[in-house]
User: Which sequence fits this backbone?
């Protein structure tokens, strides 16, 4: 009789384990990913299509608790040292090609749909870490401003934070006629409306500051393409004044390139420090 009682208790405890957390463990072991698998810096990278756009998901060898992830905006694979380091810490790395939307409402809608797909299908963390280099700053910040509760931390690098600065070139920044037309088309603005637009990240960051979303910016103070004064410096001053947590790593004399840091440890440490509690 005692033997049957022990077996009953064992099955009961196994049921509790599965109900509480075991299913997630088994699901990770059996997880299948879409698209074509290839090697990316020693990790499995899956290339697939989402909403008729090219997308990628790079999978760590061992997934960290909570399934954290870094969401890369634009220029996938450029200066990848931060992404590789985070993969070694058990992060996923995700990407969707959303050019030439440049953070417009269409861009935000696409990103939100991709976020829901990744978090619901693969059980990635409900709080994404974001990475945006150059124009990637617009993609990252505009989605984060729209969905601050879904952001763990933001790392942006020589970021565009005002499209009038770049690609508009209406300050000290460089002018790109092609990309400026993409802004007008994607945001559905006239030239006059674009010049009066007040929802660039340098202006509309309040939701992030209110939620205390941490931001790290790495930039050169002599950037001729995306000027430091019109983008990073202005954003930092306003974000700090609004109570938002921000760290800035300035590369004295640095131009727009190279992005990132040769040793990405400060970036990686920032991302790790601001992950949600498991």
Assistant:
């Amino acid at each position: 009789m005692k033997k049957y009682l022990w077996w009953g208790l064992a099955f009961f405890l196994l049921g509790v384990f599965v109900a509480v957390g075991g299913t997630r463990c088994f699901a990770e072991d059996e997880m299948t990913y879409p698209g074509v698998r290839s090697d990316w810096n020693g990790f499995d990278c899956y290339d697939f299509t989402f909403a008729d756009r090219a997308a990628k998901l790079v999978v760590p060898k061992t997934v960290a608790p909570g399934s954290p992830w870094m969401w890369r905006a634009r220029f996938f694979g450029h200066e990848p040292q931060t992404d590789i380091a985070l993969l070694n810490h058990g992060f996923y790395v995700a990407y969707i090609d959303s050019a030439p939307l440049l953070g417009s409402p269409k861009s935000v809608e696409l990103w939100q749909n991709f976020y829901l797909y990744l978090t619901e299908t693969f059980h990635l963390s409900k709080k994404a870490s974001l990475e945006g280099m150059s124009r990637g700053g617009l993609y990252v910040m505009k989605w984060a401003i729209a969905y601050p509760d879904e952001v763990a931390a933001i790392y942006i690098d020589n970021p565009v934070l005002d499209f009038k600065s770049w690609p508009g070139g209406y300050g000290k920044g460089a002018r790109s006629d092609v990309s400026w037309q993409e802004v007008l088309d994607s945001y559905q603005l006239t030239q006059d409306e674009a010049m009066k637009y007040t929802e660039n990240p340098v202006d509309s960051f309040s939701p992030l500051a209110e939620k205390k979303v941490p931001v790290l910016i790495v930039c050169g103070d002599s950037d001729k393409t995306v000027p430091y004064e019109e983008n990073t410096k202005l954003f930092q001053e306003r974000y700090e004044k609004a109570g938002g947590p921000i760290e800035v790593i300035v590369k004295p004399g640095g131009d727009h390139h190279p992005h990132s840091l040769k040793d990405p440890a400060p970036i990686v440490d920032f991302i790790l420090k601001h992950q949600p509690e498991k």
Confidence is low (pLDDT under 50) at residues 1-28. Residues 116 and 135 are 23 Å apart (CA to CA). The longest strand covers residues 43-50. The longest helix spans residues 2-29.
